[in-house]
């Protein structure tokens, strides 16, 4: 158990009644054990805000009407009382303004992705992060899974040889009908360019597939040829994405992301093939990593504390013996754990090794904008901006 005296005081913007992702964040922080919730501005609806705070055991005077009031009044509190970390779980258009102001006011930030509405905003936020001397983290939760780290290490150590082919896909089915028109708030803001940005599905889950491919393969996606579409009448943003890609060290690949695959839940999957074999990982069966050596029988590696064949980065991210399933909350808790280490340890560069940060935010937004431009244009291949190419693994050591 971590010492109670070391707990990091945490506040939330967004995440009122009915928010799945805010609840997941609070549960994940609780799993790590080094965070305590002290304040929040959970909803623009005053009654929702106060009810949420009361349900979470907060005093009424630490439930603020909006994020600006939260930052101003928390900054005025004595150092031993004020919030240290702000968790941002709002719609996309507020991510960058809130994060930028919070960092400037001296608070660490853990933001839902994407980092901002567009690349120019992320570049501005990058400058704020660099000058703030505070930790900025981005919630690419799937990069917290232990067996994703195991796959990455096996690729890096040459187990499957030189990487040739990467397939990554993320099909969902929840937007197969007009659920926004039926009153679903989560679907509603995601289809509003003013709140979501220029990308729909590509920003919501396509960026997860993109970052997973770069992270596991250990090289950056450089060129893409993309097709985006919308299959539901009246929908403003894409709900379906398919693309080919080329990576910086010669691998080629296919990325699929769709939210109109009726019947699907969250089967994010990646397959990486080298000249000596292949690896496969599926988010819905996260404890298993399939290894297919060339001319040898397939084997399945299973997660669990104490498994001697697993790498140190994978073992460090496990809490339970083999056969006791760990999943999405534990993966997010791993991000919170690395974030806690950076905040409590006071790292010199104020980055949290192991946690996606502003560089991942830059890559993701460049990916979104390049893919959409390619889809709308006449070029067969479009290059993700050169100054960003190659930074995908910077934050992961």
TrEMBL record:
<dbReference type="InterPro" id="IPR051317">
    <property type="entry name" value="Gfo/Idh/MocA_oxidoreduct"/>
</dbReference>
<feature type="domain" description="GFO/IDH/MocA-like oxidoreductase">
    <location>
        <begin position="150"/>
        <end position="280"/>
    </location>
</feature>
<dbReference type="Pfam" id="PF22725">
    <property type="entry name" value="GFO_IDH_MocA_C3"/>
</dbReference>
<dbReference type="GO" id="GO:0000166">
    <property type="term" value="F:nucleotide binding"/>
</dbReference>
<dbReference type="Pfam" id="PF01408">
    <property type="entry name" value="GFO_IDH_MocA"/>
</dbReference>
<dbReference type="InterPro" id="IPR055170">
    <property type="entry name" value="GFO_IDH_MocA-like_dom"/>
</dbReference>
<protein>
    <submittedName>
        <fullName>Gfo/Idh/MocA family oxidoreductase</fullName>
    </submittedName>
</protein>
<dbReference type="InterPro" id="IPR000683">
    <property type="entry name" value="Gfo/Idh/MocA-like_OxRdtase_N"/>
</dbReference>
<dbReference type="InterPro" id="IPR036291">
    <property type="entry name" value="NAD(P)-bd_dom_sf"/>
</dbReference>
<feature type="domain" description="Gfo/Idh/MocA-like oxidoreductase N-terminal">
    <location>
        <begin position="8"/>
        <end position="139"/>
    </location>
</feature>
């Amino acid at each position: 158990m971590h010492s109670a005296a070391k707990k990091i005081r945490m506040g939330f913007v967004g995440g009122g009644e009915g928010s799945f992702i805010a609840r997941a964040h609070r549960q994940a922080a609780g799993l790590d054990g080094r965070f305590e919730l002290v304040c929040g501005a959970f909803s623009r609806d005053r009654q929702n805000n106060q009810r949420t705070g009361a349900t979470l055991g907060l005093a009424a005077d630490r439930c603020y009407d909006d994020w600006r009031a939260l930052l101003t009044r928390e900054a005025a509190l004595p150092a031993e009382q004020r919030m240290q970390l702000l968790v941002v779980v709002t719609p996309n258009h507020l991510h960058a303004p809130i994060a930028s102001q919070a960092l400037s006011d001296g608070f660490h930030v853990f933001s839902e992705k994407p980092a901002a509405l567009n690349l120019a905003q992320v570049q501005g936020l990058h400058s704020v992060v660099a000058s703030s001397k505070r930790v900025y983290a981005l919630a690419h939760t799937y990069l917290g899974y232990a067996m994703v780290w195991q796959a990455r290490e096996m690729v890096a150590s040459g187990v499957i040889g030189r990487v040739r082919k990467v397939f990554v896909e993320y099909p969902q089915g929840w937007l197969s009908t007009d659920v926004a028109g039926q009153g679903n708030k989560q679907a509603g803001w995601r289809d509003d360019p003013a709140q979501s940005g220029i990308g729909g599905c590509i920003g919501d889950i396509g960026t997860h597939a993109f970052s997973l491919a770069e992270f596991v393969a250990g090289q950056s996606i450089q060129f893409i040829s993309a097709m985006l579409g919308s299959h539901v009448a009246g929908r403003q943003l894409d709900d379906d994405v398919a693309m080919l890609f080329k990576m910086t060290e010669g691998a080629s690949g296919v990325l699929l992301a769709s939210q109109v695959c009726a019947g699907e839940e969250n089967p994010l999957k990646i397959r990486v093939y080298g000249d000596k074999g292949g690896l496969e990982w599926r988010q819905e069966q996260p404890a298993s990593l399939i290894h297919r050596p060339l001319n040898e029988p397939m084997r399945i590696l299973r997660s669990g504390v104490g498994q001697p064949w697993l790498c140190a980065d994978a073992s460090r991210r496990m809490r339970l013996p083999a056969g006791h399933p760990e999943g999405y909350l534990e993966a997010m808790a791993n991000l919170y754990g690395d974030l806690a280490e950076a905040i409590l340890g006071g790292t010199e560069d104020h980055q949290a090794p192991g946690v996606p940060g502003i560089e991942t935010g830059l890559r993701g937004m460049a990916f979104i904008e390049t893919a959409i431009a390619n889809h709308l244009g006449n070029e067969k291949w479009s290059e993700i901006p050169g100054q960003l190419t190659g930074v995908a693994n910077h934050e992961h050591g």
